[in-house]
Structures
1.
Amino acid sequence: MTNTPNPESHHAGRTPSLIQALLPIALLIVMLATSVWLFGDNSSYGPNQIALLIAAATAAMVGAFNGQSWAHLQEGIVNGISVALGAILIILTVGALVGTWLLAGIVPTMIYFGLELLSPSWFYAASCLICAIVAVSIGSSWTTAATIGVALMGIAAGLELSLPMAAGAVVSGAYFGDKMSPLSDTTNLAPAVSGSDLFAHIRYMTWVSVPALIIALIAYAALGLSADVTSTGETLVVMQRDLDALFNISVWMLIPLGYLFVLAALGKPALPSIFSAALLGAVWALIFQPERVAAMAGEGGGSLASLQAVWLALSDGTQVASDNAALADLLSGGGMSSMLNTVWLVICAMTFGGVMEQTGLLRRVLEALLGLIKTTASLITTTILTAFSTNVLTADQYISLVLPGRMFKAEYAARGLDPRVLSRSLENGGTITSVLIPWNTCAVFMFGVLGVSPIEYAPYAFFALLVPVIGIAYAYFDFKILRLADAP
């Protein structure tokens, strides 16, 4: 996702008033709250999309009232959606990857070995730490969640643990690693926007990120130790036995996982890396899981039927039949078609964000915020809250870094603050909070792969909740707030 809109671009027509700018935002907040109230967890399966489109239509009408043409407004919609096209393609290929990795026994193998290694009492803390290490290594929270995260959710189901808590731990670890990895795109984007050095930016972020992770790990450990674990050793043995009966479990199944991690660590592009790993999973299924492929193929058998089975795994996912209904449900899913609702939500969210930017409404809100800034602490707090608000309004973490970064850069320089203060504040409010907003591209991706709504896992995504709070606290205590005069 490299085509971020330019907030400096000229917009035709009269300058909107603050009331006009706030109108579609207020309408969206009311409609989304009503959607969640009426539909609960199903709000992301259509109702939220409609709310976003109605809010986008309202913003477009404000733009038309101010003299903007439909062609100009449509350009904003197209530009907004184009920003997310890279993410949409990755989302679809991740669906294909999950489908073939289930059929090939890759995910079942990770679950099988995980049941042997992970204790229920330490599961949440261990999951967070594992995801943090993997994400630091490869620089991608999405890849971490779609591979290790999917397996950990399966293990949590096998241990009969809370899935929202497990998802919160996975998200926390994945986003810590993404934030602290020099391979991460957002970790490179934030210092580029603010004018700071990449590795200096990462070192400066440790003052917030490491304490937040430590507190999160302590909280996950407390949750695990106090959890009412109903599963027994016999339950785990039965689940492993059923897995072994359905799939050929072997360390060879982990080779595609290693292949994907190597590509990520080498900095290869995400889209071809994930899709090639999905195709490798299809090959692995044909080689190592012929019985499972034959069961998917149905009557007739033969090479063409096997090809049809893996083809369906890529497009529509894997279906597993078992006397253990819970296990069958766990091991069935994936495929590109499973991500179509996610894509629908992303397109609607980016439509709203594109119209808000093209009409100048988003810029008008940000300009109003500048008038509220009196102190350095209020500047940092406003930056974090603005990045969060941009995440809410545009549903894209990249825009939440670029727009506030450009808006506040001159103000930070005028106050003699080191660029790292801006880059860290952008990450604290933008990168981290994106996964908490149900219609944001990051949150809908996590919903798609982990199977838990952001509304459910957000209270347990301790790292994402703590980072903005710690960042704001540092600002008011003037702790580790670098000035240009202090620079060597």
Note: Residues 1-11 have pLDDT under 50 and may be disordered.
2.
Amino acid sequence: MALKTREEYINSLKAMRPNVYKFGELIEDVTAHPATRRTVESHARGFDASHDPKYADDFTAVSTFPELAGKGEKIHRWNGMMESVDDVVANSRLKRWMYRFTGSCTGGLCVGWNAQNVLWNVTALVDGEQGTRYQERLRKWIIGAQEKGLVVAGGLTDAKGDRSLRPSQQENPDSNVHIKEVREDGIVISGVKAMICGVAASNEIFILPGSAYREEDRDYALACVVPRDIDGLTIVETRRPSDAREFEDGWDIPETGITQSYLFFDNCFVPNERVFMCGESKYSAKVIEYFTANYRACIGACVAGQGDVMIGAAALMARLNGLAAGTFANKMVDMAVNNETTYGMGIGAMVIGKKGPGGMWVSDSLLAHANKVHVATLPYETKRICQDIGGGIVETGCFPSCKDFSDPVLGPMIAKAVKASGKYSAEARARAARLVEWLTLGAGVPGCMHGGGSPDGAKLVVRALTPVNQFAELARTIAGIQEDVPEPEKKKK
């Protein structure tokens, strides 16, 4: 069956070779270890939604490939193709639901999905101009991913090294993932991908070029997909703000969350059937263009979904503090406006987009990158308002732990101090306070500013795509100015 259940998904992770580390410890079972089980739980909720009639339209699809479409079976939408604007809008809806279900990112249901669609467009270009057969390989892999219901993380960001130097100029060539050897049956890769979301919860990882490369950097222009437990890959789960409590029991953090990883590739062999770009540096810029267009359109749904949870958490805190949520109606409206701004701008970018060279939909780059700028700013205001409504108990960090709260001697004393409204228990207020803290100071903060790329990078795209001269001509015509008013020539130094 193409639609996996939660249990089948978890068992698929249990069957993988352990290669994930945290705090220097090898994690034998990512589904059970406290450092990784929460991200697995988050992703598992996507499988639950796929089998729930209430959400099935957003979480499932019919394969566009005749081999599977003829069987009449549904696939998980995150394994599907984005051939129309409706398909990309469904991507946004799925993301918003996942944040509503988990309060955090589920990168394995997101980045690999976008990557396979990006590569479909790019391989059409490369094959058409270079006579390669990359898309045939990609097609076979995607059909397999749909049949197996895979969760696929995506690795773009390299460790990079010295930012003033190009990849081929780095003292440490492994600062960026690169091709070390081309064999008749595949390639050997090494290097580091950094800050990659959802890896511990994924079956496979899609590797894409981290930037637009010149010919001298052709060894870094590679695209492939590898099993998460491929020989030669070591994964280090990186520290998050919630780590101080993630090994504790109780409600100090939710049962959901996200992890980010450093991926250390050391002479990993990737067979040809999993390689979709091998040194074609000319096309690396297209990978970045297509990837960021859809990703930065859809990421508006991510922060909107988390913002929805923050509105709910703020309402809970108000009531548990003894006040009506309506007391803060104006502030909650401001939160909602922030949410709908990023969500709506993303949808707008999708609607005015168009099909790429391979037939997959590409959102409008100008509007998508403008959305990224808002994604890097508005959620922080939403978090501030959520803290404001919740009060000092959610923001100052001056709050006893669950372990103290449960102590037979200290617990009753703490409960009396924490309890506010006579209608609700002290534990309910404690849980809500911890949720707000987690959403605004913990796992929810990373990813808004630089997730999906930096806002300054997005502004560069907006600058490049904004036709200032054309707009100046429109203004000149309306003003009735007859003479030309060109941009002054740059002064020679």
Note: Residues 287-465 form a domain with the Butyryl-CoA Dehydrogenase, subunit A; domain 3 fold (CATH 1.20.140.10).
